[in-house]
């Protein structure tokens, strides 16, 4: 009996030893070829935030800085991006390319981009850091770009969570981790800039987006309305959402506390409601476009695009008039303005018009006009004209031009002309679309887009 007990004890000991050796061997094989170079950093404190200033509701988190350095002075704008490994496609480099290439040197100097490398795979992190270091050395060295990471030990439970909205368990885990990623990201960036812009790692930016954001902030602050909490520069997900940096410590705790309840963009809506902002404040055109083909969740195909995005909207200021019967609130001005709205009118007659009167005469180089929607309500027959000598229209509260010259006809329901200044080198005050044949169908003019010579001089 004793011999049997000893044999069992020896067998158990041998099995434990073999298991330990196997685990030790596997742990050695998982060590990357080169160590991850990083240093721990204490985040800067935003003195305008009562949470940060008083050290209330502390978050237990420590950051590793993988590349780049903290700017010597706070910038106007901090751009925050969280990036994880995808089963298909990687877009972080192209996103950073777009951010910096679409910004002037002055704009880049007034901005810092912080990327949270939020994947727990150390080998992948090493590859991404090396790629970014190779591609953006100057931005990393000048404090315009920083890569940070938070180790898994600081995350709350990511499995066995509540399955709200009947989401699958893996979906709940994915979106819950994403909320914590964003919580850690905004917590880290709270004192790096005056404003914070949230992007995803698969977007393209409009030209000079920072200057346009600065202008929109000034316009919003000039309005006699309650203070805003969030301005939206894209209608998709958690892309293009702008916050005041002193609100970020509160946002970080909010995302952390409710991380397993709902997706981040839904939480964002609740957050600005709690800060007494009445409804979303969205601007058009959108300044950011979703460009990724495959989702970061399971690598599924993702076709989401923002129809209000225009990379380089250049229309000069103008008042737009029409004698057509407008349907509801779809005025002629909407075809000239940025965004997804359009001009919609009832059946036009011969001689009806849409006239844009420029506030400052300009030499127009390009004109593009698009009509209809999915092949319906197209403008069948029209002439496109440039005009000079602004005059008041008798009996109407509108203006037009005294002289017009034709630059072409609508073909296939649209008009496109380039290098107009080579044949019409004068400063135009008007652009007119003149209907040349009646039609029973209604008409939609989706957009009128023009480009002008820089610093055009009036030549009458």
Describe this protein's structure:
InterPro entries: Glyco_transf_54, MGAT4, MGAT4_A/B/C_C. Pfam families: MGAT4_cons (PF04666), MGAT4A_C (PF23524). Keywords: Glycosyltransferase, Transferase. By secondary structure, the chain is an alpha+beta fold. It folds into 2 domains: 252 residues, Spore Coat Polysaccharide Biosynthesis Protein SpsA, Chain A; 135 residues, Sandwich (Jelly Rolls). It is 28% helix and 26% strand. The chain contains 11 helices and 20 strands. The protein has a 9-stranded mixed sheet with strand order 1-2-5-4-3-6-9-8-10. A 5-stranded antiparallel sheet has the order 12-14-19-16-17, with no helix packed on it. A hairpin with a 6-residue loop joins strand 16 and strand 17. The longest helix has 28 residues. It starts with a helix and ends in an 8-residue tail after the last strand. The C terminus is likely disordered.
In short:
The protein is α+β, with helices and mostly antiparallel strands and 460 residues long. It has 11 helices and 20 strands. It has helices at 2-29, 50-54, 92-101, 105-109, 122-135, 137-141, 169-189, 209-222, 248-257, 264-274, 333-336; strands spanning 39-41, 63-67, 75-83, 111-117, 145-149, 193-199, 203-205, 230-232, 241-244, 281-282, 288-290, 318-322, 343-345, 353-362, 364-371, 382-392, 399-409, 414-417, 428-435, 443-452.
